[in-house]
Every structure is written in C-alpha cells, then in structure tokens.
Specification:
43% helix; hydrolase activity; hydrolase; Histone deacetylase; histone deacetylase activity; eight-stranded parallel beta sheet; HDAC_classIV
Length: 309
C-alpha cells in the first residue's frame, strides 16, 4: 500500500503549543518498523492551480507569502512561517497522490491531511487548505477529460469534529456526498449542514458509535453511488483524547476502520484515507490508533492486490 507523507517539513511551533506536531514523525517511524506492506513515499506539493480548484486565489497567495489576515491565522491556530505554508501544500499533494494511487491499487493513504475545517477563503482549527476538497476537484477535472459523467465522490469523515469546511465547499454540489459523524457539543460550534450529519452525545462508546456508523453507511449507500471514497480516519474519538469527548476503545476504533474499508471493498470502490485529528493525553495513544488504522488498511490492500480481475 502506498502511503504519502509530508512530515520532512516540520512546523516550528512555540513551546507548549497544543498541536502535537511530532505525531506525524512518530507515526511514520512506527509504520516503517511495524507494517511491512507499506511503501512510504514523499508527496509533491500541490500547485497554485490545484489549490485554486477550491481556494480563493487571494487566500492561497496570503498563505504562501505570509500576508494572510491575522484574524484568519488566529483561527488556524498556527503562527505563519514558510515551513507552515510549504507543509500545507505538501499535505494537499499527499491526498492527491493517495487518490491517484487508490484508483490503481484500491486503497492508499496520506499520513497527514484530513484538514476539513478549511473553507475556500479561510482556514481554521489547525487546517490551512482542505486537502480532500482539492483532491476531489482535481480527480473530477482529470476524470472529465475522458468522461462526460461527473466523478462522484463520497467523503466519510469520522474525525470527532464536524467537517464544516468540507460541508460548506460541497454544499450545492450533487457530485460529492459529505458524511460526518461527530461530537454534537464539540468544535466547530457552528456546524455547516453536510449531506448526512450524525451528532453524537459526549461519552459515546463503541457500541452506540458503531451502530450509528452502520446506519449512516447504509443511508449513504441508498442515497449515493460514488466512484471514489475519501475517508478521514480521525484518531480523536478515542477515549484517551484530550479534545474528543467520546469514549471509543482501541477495538472500537479498529472495528470502525474495518467497517469503512469493508463498505468500500464490498462495492469495489477505491478508497483514499487521511489521518485528520488526534490529540491524545499520551501522544503514543494517538499514534497507536493510527498504526492500527494502517495495519487494517494494509490487509485490505492485500485483498485488492490478490483479487480476481
Ligand atoms: Zn478532529
């Protein structure tokens, strides 16, 4: 399974900053050591033209040059730096590359990404550009060169926070279905209506979560017929998360991942996944959730590889 990374560009953050930047490197090291079927590849940065499929040119320029409005930088929550701007581009590039690889191999991943709080004109909540949205628009544009029917894409967003930016970007777009399961009382406090939103109460555990996911996937399958799935495998519904407010166990999260992978596999749909959030009291716990996601995904990659054609 091909996995794309952008973490050679580490963001310089002030001491005590609450974003656990080191989780990407920890994850990459553990994947290299423990999941042998994974091919780690460096992502190319997304170009201005690719970003402009979703984002306003003025915002792209503002991020690139460090001239973006300070109030927007405060909403993003990172201080501006050239490394931040480069990394944000690379992370979008990693999701684009993962989508292309998924069309060939069935399943592929971005080791970062899932920056679903970014809107066309502004970022927020540790998200600069919306990687999934840019990748979708680009895949649709490439698909449009040889087909007149639009490429239909489903986003299955299981980060604990609502994918507000994504929902807004695709609000009037019938070619993209946005599904989000998230904490009702969690950030963002003003949610954007997506195609299917499932609000979960604080403290939701494995059983109730998996039940809600089952229903949501069933409804997605009834209402929409995608040709590509993008999965945001947030680690922040884990019970050890500082920000998540839900109570999923290791087993519950692995069952969640397998349910999504199964859903796509049974329909023969290529699936690209990104990490999205994870803010464990112990950073190792967040990384463990993510390693488990990759280990499960690698077993689906073998199925794709061995399937009769
Ligand atoms: Zn999150």
């Amino acid at each position: 399974m091909r996995v794309f990374y952008a973490d050679q560009f580490v963001l310089p953050l002030p001491p005590g900053h609450r974003f656990p930047m080191e989780k990407y490197r920890l994850l990459r090291d553990r994947l290299a050591a423990e999941v042998p079927d994974i091919q780690l590849m460096r992502a190319e940065p997304a170009t201005d033209g690719e970003l402009a499929l979703v984002h306003r040119p003025g915002y792209i320029q503002g991020i690139s040059e460090g001239t973006v409005d300070p109030s927007i930088m405060r909403e993003i929550g990172f201080p501006w730096s050239q490394a931040m701007a480069d990394r944000a581009r690379r992370s979008v590039g990693a999701t684009i590359a993962a989508c292309r690889a998924a069309f060939q191999d069935g399943i592929a991943a971005n080791i970062a990404g899932g920056t679903h709080h970014a809107y066309a004109e502004k970022g927020g909540g540790f998200c600069v550009f919306n990687d999934a949205a840019v990748a979708i628009r680009l895949m649709q544009a490439e698909h449009g060169r040889h087909s007149r029917r639009p490429l239909k894409v489903a986003i299955v967003d299981l980060d604990v926070h609502q994918g507000n930016g994504t929902a807004r970007i695709f609000r009037d777009d019938t070619s993209v279905f946005t599904l989000s399961l998230h904490g009702a009382k969690n950030f963002p406090f003003r949610k954007e209506p997506g195609d299917l939103d499932v609000d979960l109460p604080d403290g939701t555990g494995d059983e109730a979560y998996l039940h809600a996911l089952e229903h949501a996937l069933e409804e997605l399958g009834q209402r929409f017929d995608p040709a590509l799935v993008i999965y945001l495998a947030g680690a922040d519904p884990h019970e050890g998360d500082r920000l998540g407010r839900l109570k999923l166990t290791w087993d519950g999260l692995e069952a969640r991942d397998r349910r999504v992978f199964d859903w796509a596999w049974q329909r023969g749909l290529p699936l690209a996944f990104a990490m999205a959030g994870g803010y464990g009291h112990r950073i190792e716990d967040t990384v463990q959730v993510q390693v488990n996601t990759f280990a499960a995904a690698a077993s689906y990659a073998r199925r794709w590889h061995n399937r009769p054609r």
